[in-house]
Amino acid sequence: MKKDQASKKPRVFSGVQPSHDLHIGNYIGALRNWALKQHLSDNIFCVVDLHALTLPEDIKPEVLRENSRKVAALYYACGLDIETNIVFIQSHLHEHAEAAWILNCTTPLGWLQRMTQFKAKSEQAASIGMGLLDYPVLQAADILLYDTDEVPVGEDQRQHIELTRDIAIRFNNLFGETFVLPKAVIPEEGAKVMGLDEPEAKMSKSVARNRPGHAINLLDNEKTIKKAIMSAVTDSEKETRFEHASAGVINLLTMYRALTHESRDAIEARFEGKGYGFLKKELLGAVLETLKPIQSKFNEIMADRDGLERLLAKNADAAREIAAKTLSKMKEATGLG
Ligand code: AMP
Ligand code: TRP
């Protein structure tokens, strides 16, 4: 499939669920990478509220609606330029759900049953809706509707992006060339930030909701962040280095490195002969320095609610223009409409 000749830059698309508060793992694994390379690509970032509905008992309607706005504001607060990036809310467009239905019909059930995130979430959920199983097909629709070349995400999404490629290839084979094949872009450092209280498990929004000290949320105050970092799990060794350290120490060092962009050697030299208390203090400094400007930009955007609603409506129109074209190609190819 040839992309629109007018646009030479690769199309980048990604999204985060507006379920609960975003944390430093979301920032290091995804959001800040969107901002770092934004000028090299043509960018669309979506607040995937339809995905957040896949565990409906988890989130109240008024909280979901408010969180969607907050997450959109956070995308911009984390460094995306308001003028050049399209940030929109998924449910403002009907095209995503419609495209997902068509892809449902061409996606083998076995592909979805194999997804590790589905297995993990369905083990924890009290009841499992169809949407939870279908979640990666909706994600494929999100990505494919925009002729996406690159999907910047954390490590946990690799399998979903591979599946998106398989879904696109199968559709193209069945109905003719329709979709661009996207690839995942995963950061070298910080693709999987671990829980501060349990460094063997990924830092997670849903866990953080019930366990203070598990995560650093992007909107947390200084006192809460300090408490979480100072009580983070480490070990009884004394050397602060990347090799042969425990999962907890590696996690703190990895976050520090991701936030300061210093080399491993420089970091090890800085922490040589010093205890973990010093590492935690330095990490706290780096986290606060990162989050302060993000929080003040976030507050500024949220203070102008009408402005934010207008921006989101305008962006939804811009996104719809692209998505509607792909959806009509899908309908044309399959004999619908
Ligand atoms: P989610 O929290 O599942 O909506 O994920 C939103 C984005 O953040 C995705 O690109 C994830 O891969 C990324 N992400 C989520 N948790 C982490 C984590 N603990 N470390 C690094 N990236 C993460
Ligand atoms: N499944 C992704 C996550 O949990 C969120 C998501 C939905 C997404 N649609 C997407 C990410 C499209 C990238 C592209 O993190």
For this entry, give a set of tags.
single chain; 337 residues; mainly alpha; Rossmann fold; Tyrosyl-Transfer RNA Synthetase; 2 domains; 3-stranded parallel beta sheet; two-stranded parallel sheet; 14 helices; 5 strands; 56% helix; 7% strand; binds adenosine monophosphate; binds tryptophan
Describe this entry's structure for a reader:
By secondary structure, this protein is mainly alpha-helical. The protein contains 14 helices and 5 strands. The chain folds into 2 domains: about 10-185 and about 305-335, Rossmann fold, CATH 3.40.50.620; about 205-300, Tyrosyl-Transfer RNA Synthetase, CATH 1.10.240. About 55% of the residues lie in helices and about 5% in strands. It has a 3-stranded parallel beta sheet. Helix 4 packs across helix 7 (about 130-145). The mean pLDDT is about 95. Adenosine monophosphate (AMP) binds next to helix 1.
Q: Name every ligand kind in the structure.
A: adenosine monophosphate, tryptophan
Order of helices and strands: EHEHHEHHHHEHEHHHHHH
- How large is the share of residues in beta strands? 5-15%
- The tally of helices reads 14
Helix content: 55-70%
Low-confidence stretches: none
CATH homolog superfamily of the largest domain: HUPs
Cα Rg: 21 Å
CATH architecture of the largest domain: 3-Layer(aba) Sandwich
List the domain count as a whole number.
Answer: 2
